[in-house]
């Protein structure tokens, strides 16, 4: 899981980053809200850990800005050294998924992160089959069917297509996709991703005239889009 930590306290950042890495997560850190917002324009994260008190704007205001984008369902946990119940309630009502009162043990932070991640996955069927309209993904044999017709794909094509379908209308950065599917350095320059996108576009008939497409986002990555046939531009 890719995690971003926003906190201007270097000791806290190091502690949280090391804890996340010890539990197998990739972690980037940012000293203020502006740095994170700039990063979100070029990259994708599974979870954000936001400090309540930041040097430029408050963590609460940062949370509101993130949640103002209705397409962004990224999990958010607030980090706070206060136990003000009214403030915590406001954060939860504004879209935070959980909060952690500092200081806290690494194992507890990891458990809260996993709990938020697990809840965010509950919308996806845990069973063998995942259905997205006429598309069916068989996770046991890694086969994709369109209206019952099996399509031959390799393992990376299957995983890439499933990632895009599970994040319908959500922009995914190239770095995020490369790290999630290929476990590669997100800064790695490669045509591998583009070739796989081209293949699944063709194999799965992901074309505007069929009401579904993979849109390339210049300087960022890709987004799967579904729309009424004839509505695309």
Plain-language structure description:
- With 233 residues, the protein is of the alpha/beta class.
- The chain has two domains: 2-120, Rossmann fold; 129-226, Winged helix-like DNA-binding domain superfamily/Winged helix DNA-binding domain (Arc Repressor Mutant, subunit A), CATH 1.10.10.
- It is built from eight helices and twelve strands.
- It has helices at 10-22, 33-40, 59-67, 85-93, 106-120, 155-166, 174-182, 192-203; strands at residues 2-6, 26-30, 47-51, 75-80, 98-101, 129-132, 135-138, 143-146, 149-151, 172-173, 212-217, 221-226.
- The strands form three sheets. It has a five-stranded parallel beta sheet, with helices on both faces.
- Strand 8 (143-146) and strand 9 (149-151) form a beta hairpin.
- Helix 6 packs across helix 8.
Which properties best describe this structure?
single chain, 233 residues, alpha/beta, Rossmann fold, Arc Repressor Mutant, subunit A, five-stranded parallel sheet, 8 helices, 12 strands
Please specify the SSE layout and strand pairing.
Elements: E1 2-6, H1 10-22, E2 26-30, H2 33-40, E3 47-51, H3 59-67, E4 75-80, H4 85-93, E5 98-101, H5 106-120, E6 129-132, E7 135-138, E8 143-146, E9 149-151, H6 155-166, E10 172-173, H7 174-182, H8 192-203, E11 212-217, E12 221-226
Parallel strand pairs: 1-2, 1-3, 3-4, 4-5
Antiparallel strand pairs: 6-7, 7-8, 8-9, 10-12, 11-12
Using the coordinates above, name the CATH class of the largest domain.
Answer: Alpha Beta
Question: Shape from CA axes?
Answer: elongated
Please give the count of helices.
8
Unreliable parts: none
| Series of H and E elements | EHEHEHEHEHEEEEHEHHEE
User: Which structural class should the secondary elements be placed in?
Assistant: alpha/beta
**Most strands sheet:** 5 strands, parallel
Compute the gyration radius: what is it? 19 Å
Please state roughly what percent of the residues sit in beta strands, choosing from under 5%, 5-15%, 15-25%, 25-35%, 35-45% or over 45%. Answer: 15-25%
Tell me the number of structural domains.
Answer: 2
Overall pLDDT, averaged? 84
Q: Strand tally, please? A: 12
Kindly report the name of the CATH homologous superfamily of the largest domain. Response regulator
Q: Roughly how much helix do the residues carry, as a percent range?
A: 25-40%
């Amino acid at each position: 899981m890719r995690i971003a930590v926003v906190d201007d306290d270097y000791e806290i950042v190091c502690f949280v980053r090391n804890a996340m890495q010890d539990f197998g997560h990739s972690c980037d850190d940012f000293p203020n809200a502006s740095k994170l917002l700039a990063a979100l324009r070029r990259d994708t994260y599974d979870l954000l850990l936001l400090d309540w008190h930041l040097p430029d704007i408050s963590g609460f205001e940062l949370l509101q800005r993130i949640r103002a984008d209705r397409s962004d369902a990224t999990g958010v946990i607030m980090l706070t050294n206060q136990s003000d119940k009214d403030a915590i309630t406001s954060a939860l009502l504004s879209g935070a998924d959980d909060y952690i009162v500092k200081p806290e043990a690494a194992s507890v932070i990891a458990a809260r992160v996993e709990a938020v991640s697990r809840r965010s996955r509950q919308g996806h069927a845990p069973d063998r089959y995942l259905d997205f309209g006429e598309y069916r993904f068989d996770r046991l044999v890694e086969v994709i069917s369109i209206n019952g017709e099996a399509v031959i794909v390799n393992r990376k094509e299957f995983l890439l297509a499933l990632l895009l379908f599970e994040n319908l209308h959500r922009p995914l950065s190239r770095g995020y996709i490369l790290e999630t599917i290929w476990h590669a350095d997100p800064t790695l320059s490669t045509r591998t991703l583009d070739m796989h996108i081209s293949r699944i576009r063709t194999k799965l008939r992901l074309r505007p005239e069929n009401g579904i497409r993979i849109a390339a986002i210049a300087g960022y990555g890709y987004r799967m889009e579904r729309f009424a046939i004839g509505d695309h531009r």
